[in-house]
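[Solved] Which block belongs to which protein?

Original post:
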Amino acid sequence: HYSPVFPNQSWARDGSYISYHLNFDRPEVTRACKGRRQWGRQRGLYRRVVEQALDRELETHVAPAYHRLLEPADLDVKQRRVWAQFLLSQIVRTPTFMKYEVAASRHFPENAPPDNDRVGCQDCGDLPWVYERRWLVLLAHWEDYFVRTDNPVLLTGFIEEPETCIYYPLSPLLCFVASSMPSDWQPEREERHLERIIGLQLEKGQAHCFNFYLARSAERSLIVHPHHDGEIARTMFEDVLGTYPQPPFPLHRPDA
C-alpha cells in the first residue's frame, strides 16, 4: 500500500469508498465503488521487506499521533517528529514520486535512492522543515468535505522554502496543514516547546478549493466518502483529476 489503510478508512462507509479513476488509454474518468483494501495499493511497487518496515517501523508508531490530530489535540515533540516522518514517507512512497525517481536516475544513476528511504527516520535532515512549521487543522463546513488522492500529500513548493505549505487530509472533515512561514524563517533543529496546533473552521465552499488542487495533483485516482459523492464531485473530478500530478518537490531545490 502506498496509501496506508488506517488513514484511508475514514473515507469508507460499510467498508467501501467511491473511487474516481483516470483511464489514460481513452482518456476518461470512471467512478466505481471500491473495498477498503482495494484502493491505494499497487502490486510490486516495492519489495515486501519495505512494506513490512513501513508497517512495523512507521505506521504502528504514527497511529497514536494521527488519532490525536483527529480530535484535534496537540502533539509533543516526539509525536511531531514521527508525524513529519510519516508525511515525508507518504510523499516518496507513491507511484508518481517513484516514476520521477526512475526518470532522474537515468541521468544521475549514482543518486538513485535505496528502497528503505520510503520509511525514513526520526533524525532525517528534512524533518525540521515540517515539524517546526506552524501547524493547523482545517475543519470543513458541515456541508463540505475533503478527498484523498493517490498523491495524498500536497506541497506547494520545495520543502526548504519558508513559503511552502504542506496539506494532508486527515478525514473527510479535517485537513492537516504545516503552514508557510516568514521569509527569514529557518528551523532551529532543537528539542524545544513548539506552538500549539491551531484549529480553523472553513466557510462553505472553501474545502472544495482545496479539493480542486488535491484532485489536480493526483496521478490517476482519488476516493470520496459515499455520503459526499454527488454532482459537485462528478463535475469537478471528471474535469481536473490528474491534470498536474504532484511534482517531486522533496527532491530538493538545486542549491539545497
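(Second protein starts here: sequence line, then its C-alpha cells.)
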Amino acid sequence: TSTGAGSPPAFEAAGGGTLGTECSTASGSTDCEFTSIASGTKQITIIFDAVSCSITSSLRVTIGDSGGYETSGYVYLTQLLDANNIASDIMYGAVTLSLMDSTNNQWGVTGNWKLNATKMGNLGGTKSLSAELDRVKVEIGGGDDWDGGSINIVSFT
C-alpha cells in the first residue's frame, strides 16, 4: 500500500497457506485425493516426498469441481531428463496449480522434481473447469502401486 509520495511502500504480511492431510504412498496404495479445498483458493502446491512406485509408471494429477474430476481437456507437456524410468526412482519436488482466470475456472500448472541423483523432470500446462476447483487427485497409472513416500498439499486463498 502507498504511504505517500517519496516514501517506500508498506507491505501487508502474507497470509499463511492451509496444509492438507498428508497422504501416505506406502505399499498397495494407488492414489491420493485432496477434497474439500476451500472456496476462493487461488493456488495449490502439491509436495512429493520420497514417492516411489513398484514398477515404471507415470504419475497423473487430476483436478475437479463439485461435478467430479475432469478427465479430458488438459493442455500440458511433461519432460523427463534421462527418460530411462526404473522402479527404484524416488521423487522429490512440487507441482503448483495457479488460478489464471476465475471467470473460466482456468488453472495453470508448473512443476519440477528430482528422481534420484541423475534425473529431473518438469511440467507446464493449463486446464479449465466447469465450476470452482474443490478437489485434486494424484494417481499412478498402469495398474501399478506406490511403495514409499508421501504427498501433501498446501493451498492459498
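Accepted answer:
You had them paired correctly. Confirming on the second one: The first strand starts at residue 18 and ends at 19.
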